[in-house]
Structures are given as C-alpha cells and as structure tokens.
Amino acid sequence: MLKGKNALVTGSTSGIGLAMARALAEQGANVMINGLGDPAENEAIRASIEADFGVKALFSPANMLKADEIQAMVQEAQAQFGSVDILVNNAGIQFVSPVDEFPEEKWDAIIGINLTSAFHTTKAVLPGMKEKGWGRIINTASAHALVASPYKSAYVAAKHGIAGLTKTVALEVAEQGITVNAVAPGYVWTPLVEKQVGDTARARGITEEQVKQDVMLKAQPTKQFVTVEQVAAVVTFLAGDAAASITGVTMPVDGGWTAQ
C-alpha cells in the first residue's frame, strides 16, 4: 500500500513508535526511526526492519528538545530517501505531579518533546510535501488530548496542543494533497506500562490485576488495554490513499474512554 513512500517516525525505538515504524515498513515504506538509548540496540532494531520487510531503514539519534538536531534529522532523511512523504510525530515523555509542585524543568521538557518538536518536524517536512503535492502527517496525541486527568498538567496541555496544531496545519494544507491527523490512544499495553503495573502494585499494596482493572483501566469501558498493533494499524490507514478525505481529525483509539 505504501511502496515507494518514505516515512520518518520520531520516538520509535520501542513501544508504540516502533510498532508504527514496523507497520509502515510492512506496507512497503522506507522508514527512518529515531530515539535515544543504546547505539547497539538501536542498530539492531534498524537492521531488523530492513531484514524483515525488505525496505531501507535509517536511524537518527536526534534529541527532540533541540531544533537544530530535528532539522538535521529531516534533512538527512530527505537526502537518503529523496523525500519524506509520511511524518509520524510520536516522541513523548510523562511526569506526574500537582501543578503547584510541578518542576519547571519537567514542564519545559514535556512541552518541548511532546508538542514543540512536532512543530519543528512539521515545519521542516512541509515544503517537500507541498512540492510533491502529497503528504501525510500523523501526530500521536492521547485520550488526554480530549479529556484531562489530575496531576498531568504538562502532558494534558501538550496533547491538547497537539490536537490544535493538527487542526490548524490540516486547514493550511487542505488543498495541497496533504492530510494532517492525530491518533489518540488510551492506555496501551507496552513494556513501560507493564513495568508500571508491578511498581504500582507494590507501592499501593494491591495485586497487579487490581492495578490493571481499578487504576489503569478504570476510565476505559472495554476494560482492555489498547495494543500497539491496533494503534499502528490506524496510522497505516491514515497514511494511505483510502484516508485522503480524512484530515484535521484527532481519532480516539481508547476503548471508549472519551465517549463518557
């Protein structure tokens, strides 16, 4: 479905981002992945995408807090692939605290990585997409782009900002063959969440099953975690021609959370 297209996915060496990158590659797109962490592990992830799907895969260690590194990442992808046709802004971090105790450096980092980096990548890829008359920008939002939870002020503010950025850019490029959408997952089962289950169970003195059902899935009517494959499937759909008339949308994949 995406053969001949070139994709850049930020924050894509694990979890949801890696599932997105692999799903795009499975559909035939060349992919640049991005993240921090161990260089050897990142190289193994990159090589596995090439081996598994027969596409070209690149890796960028660009720090999403640094505009110059973001610009260089996009330029490298364009130079190596010839274009960036699909941009997935997935990089994100979280911190939980009452707002009057929220560390200012944590606020700045969350807004920077979760929101401002998407501005920088979008600004960098749009000229090339406009030139080709085709492009897909897909932002990872969250159920928290549509509803709030206490103690997550920076994250909720950033994700609401992503929803607004998505709508605005979609309107600006609506006549140029470019769509801009966001995917808004609820609680997704990832290694990071799995670790949080054990930590929360020990901290609260309850079972892991109680953590899942009474804490994490309390807001999700299905009482089931979203899977990374389900989120990635929505991304590949939005990246394809079948979704050409869908733009400016923040699409929940949240087990009914935001229907309440």
From TrEMBL:
One of its GO terms (biological process) is monocarboxylic acid metabolic process. Gene3D superfamilies: NAD(P)-binding Rossmann-like Domain. Pfam families: adh_short. It comes from Neptunomonas marina. This is 3-hydroxybutyrate dehydrogenase. It is an enzyme of class 1 (oxidoreductase). The keyword Protease does not apply. Its EC number is 1.1.1.30. GO terms for molecular function: 3-hydroxybutyrate dehydrogenase activity. InterPro entries: 3-OHbutyrate_DH (IPR011294), NAD(P)-bd_dom_sf (IPR036291), Sc_DH/Rdtase_CS (IPR020904), SDR (IPR050259), SDR_fam (IPR002347). Belongs to the short-chain dehydrogenases/reductases (SDR) family. Keywords: Oxidoreductase.
